[in-house]
Structure formats: structure tokens, C-alpha cells
Design a protein that fits this description.
four-stranded mixed sheet, alpha+beta, 371 residues, HSP40/DNAj peptide-binding domain, flat, Helix Hairpins, single chain, three-stranded mixed sheet, 11 helices
Length: 371
């Protein structure tokens, strides 16, 4: 396959600044890194290609040679050479900061540690999904949930070692918690298979927990749902995830909100539709409407109101701190399906008195969308 132009590979123009080149490479490195695409040969080749392009055009001398002579100008200067590629990988720290940390963040790497290599591993975060009524999401509530988590083993107090037993440095990774293996011209670190990334192994495992330091436990806790929470949001409860040598992870409670039969929500505002009669719309009236909170409020309908018009009721929407949104009531004028004889006579008389338009013009769409 023909080699692609380095600028084309990174998706930047030839006059791109170093910052633009760095940003472009960072995006591609995150997208195609082998840790994120295990077993994907195409992604691996894209990662190699992007790394090679960045290694050349991020260096002023190599870039000048490439711009003037193309690929021939950078032969022997590190293009595709394994030794020179180590220079590019050393540049990762400038691009990503802590290289291993950024890829743990992006690719869901191992659990957090309390220290460097061989440090104590924090327990896993857990997820719990709940569905709550619309009203509870608006005004807040408390929900009791029950779930299973790995708790610290009482027999070994979370150490994983039997009484009198201890730990020793893992002979496979020498306490680093990681092993490295080569993939082509670059090296990839992975969790040590012998110690699971802990950096140590237990000589005499606890019989109760098998050396894991944890046991499965069923737990009940009360979760506070804040007022105004939206569908799909989450509540984080610290240290209620799985236990680990470096401390417990967090519990993430994801919230689904049931639709309401009468109310909808947009930001902090609530919306509902209320039917009114033709005479109420024509003459005006006072009607009584139930709010989501359960209150009954009096709403004044001005004479001559049109179908679909909105009435705003202040401070009857979703609470948020010291303020609240509004309640919008959409008026739906109900046309009688059947009329009594007297009712029909009155309507016919009204038509004669007020007149009727037998050739109406269309209503501008802009007027409809503004309602």
C-alpha cells in the first residue's frame, strides 16, 4: 500500500502550527491506540502511521527535510525506525501529561491506585439504575436501594493473607504491577497476569476469601435524589462501590424518569394542556387548575383567547436552589360534538349576528410556530 503524505495522515495543512499538529496527533492516538482497539489490525496500522507522521513533522529539522524532499529527505532520520520511534513516545508526556494515566482515563484502564506502580488498588466503581416518578424527579425524594458489593473480608481484614501470612514482591513484574511486550516497533504495557497489577503476591491466602481480601455482601442504602434532577443524570455516592486494598470505589446511581400523564418538562419549566369550552374562550372565565405539586390555582382566561395559546403561571415550575421555573398552560378549545336543539339555535343566531368568512385566507406559518 502506498505511503500517505504525513500531513494528510494527521489531517492538517502544510502550514499547521506545532500546537495544531500536536492536537491532531493526540486525537488520532486516542482513537487508534491498541489498548482501545484490541485485536484490530487496521487501528494498529493507523496508530503506527500517525505516530510516524508526528515523529517527523513535529521536529523542525525533519519537517524541513520532508517539506523539501519528501520521504527521501527523511530516510535515515527516524521515519519508521524503531529506535527513533522511542523519541516520539517520550514526547507523549508533553502531549498527554502522564501517559499511563490519560489512557486509563480514556480506555477504562485499571482501577485507581493510592500510589505509583505496585501501589494499593482501589475497588471498582459500581452502577445502579433506578426509575423514579416524574414528580419525584421535580421535587426530589429519597429512595432505598439494595445491591451486592465486594466488602472487606472480616477474617483477614481485607489483606487477603491468612493469619501470620504476608506478601512478597511479584517476581514477574518486580513490583511494578505491569509487564511490557512489543507490538512491532512500539512497546505496550499491560496488567501483570501474576499479581493482577498489585505488584505483590500473597504467600498464604486467606481461606475465607481465597486471597482476594473481599467477600460478596448484600447492602441497603438510602439515596437522596435532588430536586430538579433530569432523566439520564447520575448521583455519585462515594466509597459505596467494591472494596479494595486501596479503599472502596464509588457507587453511580443512574436515574430514569417516568413520563407523566399530564405534564412535560423543559429545563426548569413545566407544560400541560387544559381544555376550555367555546363560551369560556369567547367570553373569558376563571378556571381552577391542579398543579404538579397538588395545589389548585385559579387561572384567568381573557376574552377572545385563541386555541393553543399559552398562559404563564410564575414560580410553579421545577425548583432549582432559590428559584423556580414557570408553569405554562396550553389552552385547548373543545368544540361540542353534539348540540341540543336550543344550543344549535343559539349558534346559528350567533353566526348570523357575527357573520362568517366563507373564503378564509391561510394563516402564515410563522404565526403558528410562535404560539
Amino acid at each position: 500500500m502506498a505511503k500517505r503524505d504525513y500531513y494528510e495522515v494527521l489531517g492538517v495543512p502544510k502550514n499547521a502550527s506545532k500546537d495544531d499538529i500536536k492536537k491532531a496527533y493526540r486525537k488520532l492516538a486516542i482513537q487508534y491506540h491498541p489498548d482501545k482497539n484490541p485485536g484490530n489490525k487496521e487501528a494498529e496500522e493507523r496508530f503506527k502511521e500517525a505516530t510516524e507522521a508526528y515523529e517527523i513533522i513535529s521536529d523542525d529539522q525533519k519537517r524541513a527535510a520532508y517539506d523539501q524532499f519528501g520521504f527521501a529527505g527523511v530516510e535515515g532520520m527516524g521515519a519508521g525506525n524503531a529506535q527513533d520511534f522511542s523519541q516520539a513516545f517520550r514526547g507523549f508526556e508533553d502531549i498527554f501529561g502522564d501517559f499511563s494515566g490519560i489512557f486509563d482515563t480514556f480506555f477504562g484502564g485499571g482501577s485507581r491506585r493510592s500510589g505509583g506502580g505496585g501501589g494499593l488498588r482501589q475497588g471498582a466503581n459500581l452502577r445502579y439504575d433506578i426509575e423514579i416518578p416524574f414528580k419525584d424527579a421535580v421535587f426530589g425524594t429519597k429512595v432505598e436501594i439494595q445491591y451486592s458489593r465486594n466488602d472487606s473480608c472480616p477474617a483477614c481484614r481485607g489483606s487477603g493473607a491468612a493469619n501470620g501470612g504476608g506478601k512478597k514482591v511479584c517476581p514477574t513484574c518486580q513490583g511494578s504491577g505491569q509487564v511490557r511486550h512489543s507490538q512491532g516497533f512500539f512497546s505496550v504495557a499491560s496488567t501483570c497476569p501474576s499479581c493482577g497489577g498489585e505488584g505483590y503476591i500473597i504467600e498464604q491466602p486467606c481461606k475465607e476469601c481465597g486471597g482476594s481480601g473481599t467477600q460478596k455482601k448484600r447492602q441497603k442504602i438510602m439515596v437522596t435524589i435532588p430536586a430538579g434532577v433530569e432523566n439520564g443524570k447520575r448521583v455519585v455516592i462515594p466509597r459505596q462501590g467494591d472494596a479494595g486494598p486501596g479503599g472502596a470505589g464509588d457507587l453511580y446511581v443512574f436515574i430514569r424518569v417516568k413520563p407523566h400523564e399530564y405534564f412535560e418538562r423543559q429545563d426548569l419549566d413545566l407544560y400541560c394542556a387544559v381544555p376550555v369550552s367555546v363560551t369560556q374562550a369567547v367570553l373569558g372565565a376563571d378556571i381552577h387548575v391542579s398543579t404538579l405539586e397538588g395545589k389548585t390555582i385559579k387561572v384567568k382566561i381573557p376574552p377572545g383567547i385563541q386555541n393553543g395559546k399559552m398562559l404563564r403561571i410564575r414560580d410553579e415550575g421545577v425548583p432549582s436552589g432559590s428559584r423556580r421555573g414557570n408553569l405554562y398552560i396550553k389552552l385547548i378549545i373543545q368544540i361540542p360534538v353534539k348540540l341540543s336543539r336550543r344550543g344549535r339555535e343559539l349558534m346559528e343566531e350567533l353566526a348570523q349576528v357575527e357573520g362568517q368568512n366563507d373564503a378564509p385566507k391561510p394563516i402564515p406559518l410563522a404565526e403558528l410556530s410562535s404560539e
